[in-house]
Specification:
The structure is a homodimer. Chain A is of the alpha+beta class. Chain A folds into three domains: 12-429, Glycosyltransferase; 434-528, Sandwich (Immunoglobulin-like); 533-646, no CATH class. Chain A is 37% helix and 18% strand. Chain A contains 20 helices and 20 strands. In chain A, helix 1 runs antiparallel to helix 18 (415-424), helix 3 (68-85) runs parallel beside helix 7 and helix 9 packs antiparallel against helix 10 (208-224). At the A-B interface, helix 15, strand 11, strand 12 and strand 17 of A face helix 15, strand 11, strand 12 and strand 17 of B.
């Protein structure tokens, strides 16, 4: 695998999501979700902290020490949404409100920045003398990294420089302290590296030298990590600094012994054999590394990243694209350790997998990375937000006894704004382009306005994705213009039919490509076969032994108690059955259910005993039921749920 | 279920274990295990703590605050062994050494007792002013309860009163502070109640009034527990006391909210719907409650205990008799939650289940409780000690990737002396008697010396249990004497043949009973069918879906990598196969392996992908392998292990 600067996302203003599926979610963000999150940030004191700093207060910080980051992620989500939906007249009121909330909040943030550029309200309010003494646990750069992302997003959406200038001062401050010729240091929770990359993009047109400096610092941070001496290990001797977070100290060094893998400090990426530790951290690190090493011809790093990718996707990823099975470390345990009911599979980790797979998809122009991105996006990440946009999952198990439900907010609130910023920026994930190619990575309905060689081009994708594989792409060229139109062929698609008179299709790296000179309006049609498919797990995934799971297109399906009228544990499925029903607009905000057949064990027919001789078991009763997409579970009557169903 | 004082154990001196299986373990205790545990107690400062108190030191306690209890459990084990093996000439040297170690240690303990009877070296050395302020977390009565058990055992084995007198002073001290007319209090970790019952047995012949007082206090403690106001909940307001154990404070009240079920304080036993919380605590509570409510005609309590028994054995017990699946609370999670690889199934919890089921077996004279006792004894508990007697499991998973091994000792060392005291006192578990009946509860080889109506009787059991179901019981009566000889018919036994000319057998509550007047030497033979049996789990145990497990007689079998020459995850078994091999004295200190057939997935033949369409999977290769008893696993080359095998 080579990492090259190939596909890039278009500015969000140039990609309008017209999709019924995603468009509904984006409008929900504007109407409901972001306002809820803003009010949570206000009510929990997260925003007031900035004003408290400006007022010179001391000791008035409440909550988690990384709470600044939630505000920044909300700003990033809101900014993306302004860019994506700015032209939507129906939402003008909601977007005006959002815009005002953003401006107010940014003003508060700017007022809190220290003269030297430092900005972290926990330290400024509680421990002004303890800055940078506990990089391993205290998330200073993590919070600042989210600030840089928010700054770039707000500038990109509005052109306003207030937050961008705050971000530049933060980045320059950190760069004055840490780097190859300065102190060896980076954050226990990766994120600052991504922030630097986004800041670099934002300032590059006006200040390419600074942009290069930021990218260089990000590259140094991801590459140094894991080398020895470890800055985090050294900090363990600083008793006073360790008191700042006894819980995380114990996670980093249980029993006093440094456990480096939790924060990916066990080995440099170049030497790391597998993806370990806290899953969100691992994804943010690898997303940054993938981007920072584009066009470097660093084959050692490219091989390492590919090795880690294969380890993740071939041994440590749920069918939903959820990752990180354990709640203990919010992360990885071992190859093929993928328990269903206790799956942690944090929403943020699935979002992180979208980030990393997207970076790989951009750097390679290879559809296989989009397959994983799509899997995480439509399943493991999307389940993190309710159909009404007002409640959130932190953990995303693949099986429930009926006791796991979305919450309005969390004390540690990383997930709600993370899924929001992903949905708001969806336009960056569904299409990409090079100098002379436009790539449809996910065939959801959208309208792209771009130009090739100065000639404006509009590309319109029409589809009912993910419910149908029929896709129509219309190119409107104001004058004859040559470019490649590349449309990804999903990995789940057994057969694709294309209908286009203009030119013969080429097939390359998971894309079907139409290279021609476009003029006027031309329309092509594709039909991606979208049959229900039953899956079995690799034999080493012991938790799925004797079980099977259903997908259709990008969607993983599940069985919920409300559809079976009995505990799903009682059901065994016939994996030769699966009949696609008609799209039901009244069900779960519109889904296509799949009817399946199987057998149900009648409660009364089972012996009381926990363990029985096989021949003593009663026969089960045939039953028909239906399955619904996993992302939409827990929206009706509370009850049990399974992705992996028992086979008889 | 009625609780009555029916069967009682005989003094250990009257039951000689001649069994090849258990006799080997008892000799190991004398030769190796107890000496190792003594040295651990010395080297870790556990015994020196008592001398430190006597010297008036302050602040010199090291290790866990409940470390006294390990010393007491070791004394109890050693005392049992002196009683059980005292007449064994070959072991005279080892038992002399043990006897001296016991006397020295007891002298140290006696020297540490405070004038008012209090004894807890952690508080005496570290926090003399903090006594009894944190009953919920600090284990003072827990330690003292083990002291009472040790005191009764040492007195019973040797007739020496030193430790018994210490125990009486401890019990009287506690009784002066806590009780129906005094402070409402009992220990967060149950155990003192059992200690009181054992102390009562020891003093009853000389001081029946005190014995009754101790039983009444024990009964009050088990019955009050769970009532409101909760003494533990009130303590949470005592900030200073809570600092004594921040970890346990967090377990009892995560996020500051009291979580009463951890220590069975959520409801009185009378109202409790299910067995919850820390598994060892739950077993010690229920064992004490069962005994304390014998002959009380308290039908509400009897129903409650039966309800909890059914909940445990029909919904929350591993096939091995292991209980408490979660490491988080060292205890229960939910009905049918029985994961294999992450099974905590603490050795102490299986030992606790032996205690409780034994109390029920004694109180009911019903063989079904012995079935569970036997299951836990031969599997979940016995796995806790290595075949060489020198290493121990704390956790007993039913599946391993090859990374779980017995340890020489633990920082929290409850398990090693617990399994030792169980094996040392085995004579109390295999036979019992009433005024006019002798019950063989487990048909292991032993020699019982007792008397009915003043007439001495010797009953000799000969067998190769658990490898064979053929049992010969010989009664030697010095004069004609009438009594019932009751022999339990194991629940796993499909058919039993009896051969005895003297009298017709009766069958009652899981026993075959021969009621006659015995004279001279009479021999009867029984043959318990002992075929291999394949088991499936209740359909709600999702972790065992598509899997099957093998038992023969009381033993659960497992497959180890060393016998398959490949990861056991690759194997799928044919559950119609199972051929009992000849007993192999050279294998695992002597076992009867079982040959099974199945199929192995060749590593190279599987696709790399985590998830595959079922039709794409390659065929597996037929293979024969053998299974060995679970208790003996992890004694050869390290590798993977499974109890529940995949079915094809």
């Amino acid at each position: 695998m080579r990492l090259q600067r190939r596909l890039r996302s278009l500015p969000l203003q140039q990609v309008q999501i017209t999709d019924r599926f995603w468009g509904r979610y984006q409008r929900l963000l504007a109407a409901t979700t972001l306002d809820i999150q803003y009010r949570q940030c206000v009510e929990t004191g997260r925003i007031e902290h900035f004003r408290s700093v400006a007022r010179g207060e001391q000791g008035t910080f409440k909550g988690r020490y990384f709470n600044d980051s939630d505000v920044y992620k909300w700003i990033e989500a809101g900014s993306f949404l302004l860019a994506a939906l700015g032209s939507d007249a129906e939402l003008a009121g909601a977007l005006d409100r959002l815009s005002g909330q953003l401006d107010d909040t940014i003003e508060a943030i700017a007022s809190a920045q220290a003269p030297d550029g430092y900005l972290d309200t926990f330290f400024q309010l509680q421990h002004p003398d303890m800055r940078w003494r506990n990089l391993g646990a205290m998330h200073e750069m993590y919070c600042m990294g989210h600030l840089l992302e928010a700054a770039a997003a707000h500038f990109g959406a509005t052109g306003k420089r207030t937050l961008l200038d705050v971000g530049i001062r933060v980045a320059d401050h950190v760069a004055s302290l840490f780097g190859p010729d300065r102190r060896k240091g980076y954050c226990g929770h990766e994120e600052f590296e991504i922030g630097l990359l986004r800041l670099a993009d934002a300032v590059r047109p006006s200040d390419p030298d600074s942009a290069d400096r930021y990218v260089d610092l990000a590259r140094w941070m991801v590459d140094e990590r894991g080398s020895r001496p470890s800055p985090f290990e050294a900090e363990l001797q600083d008793e006073e600094a360790m008191k700042l977070s006894p819980w995380l100290r114990n996670m980093l060094a249980p029993g006093g012994v440094y456990k480096a893998d939790y924060c990916q400090d066990h080995a440099r990426i170049r030497e790391a054999p597998e993806v370990v530790g806290h899953a969100v951290r691992a994804m943010y690190l690898l997303a940054a590394a993938t981007e920072a090493f584009e066009d470097r011809d660093d084959t050692e790093m490219e091989s390492a990243i590919e090795r880690l990718w294969l380890d993740l996707t071939q041994k440590r990823m749920y069918l939903t694209g959820g990752i990180g099975p354990s709640g203990h470390n919010e992360g990885f345990v071992a190859d093929y350790h993928l328990p269903n009911r206790t799956a942690y599979a944090e929403t943020c980790a699935a979002v992180g997998l979208v980030f990393w797979s997207h970076r790989l998809a951009q750097a390679t122009f290879d559809g296989e990375y989009v397959d994983v991105m799509e899997r995480a996006l439509y399943n493991g990440a999307l389940a993190g937000i309710s159909l009404a946009g007002d409640r959130f999952f932190y953990e995303n198990p693949l099986e429930s006894a009926g006791d796991h439900h979305r919450q309005a907010w969390f004390d540690c609130a990383c997930c709600p704004p993370n899924i929001a910023r992903l949905i708001a920026s969806l336009g960056a994930y569904v299409v990409g382009r090079t100098e002379d190619a436009l790539a449809i990575q996910i065939p959801c309905a959208c309208r792209v306005e771009t130009a090739f060689g100065g000639t404006p081009v509009r590309v319109t994708v029409e589809s009912e994705f993910p419910w149908s594989g029929e896709v129509r792409v219309t190119v409107d060229a104001s004058a004859p213009v040559s470019f490649e139109l590349a449309i990804r062929i999903p990995g789940w698609c057994g057969d694709v039919e294309t209908e286009f008179d203009g030119v013969e299709a080429e097939y390359r790296d998971g894309y079907v490509i139409f290279a021609t000179t476009w003029s006027g309006r031309q329309t092509l049609r594709l039909d991606f076969e979208m049959e229900p498919r039953w899956w079995v797990s690799h034999f080493q995934v012991l938790d799925n032994c004797g079980r099977t799971a259903l997908t259709r297109g990008p969607l993983v399906y599940c069985l919920e108690e409300v559809d079976l009228a009995s505990s799903v544990a009682r059901f065994a499925v016939d994996p030769t059955s699966a009949e696609v029903e008609a799209f039901d607009g009244g069900l779960l905000e519109g889904v296509t259910p799949i009817r399946v057949e199987g057998w149900i064990d009648q409660p009364g027919a089972w012996p009381d005993e926990l363990y029985s001789a096989e021949e003593d078991l009663p026969a089960a009763t045939p039953v028909r039921t239906r399955m619904v997409p996993y992302y939409a579970w827990d929206a009706r009557a509370a009850g049990s749920m399974q992705v992996w169903l028992r086979r008889p």
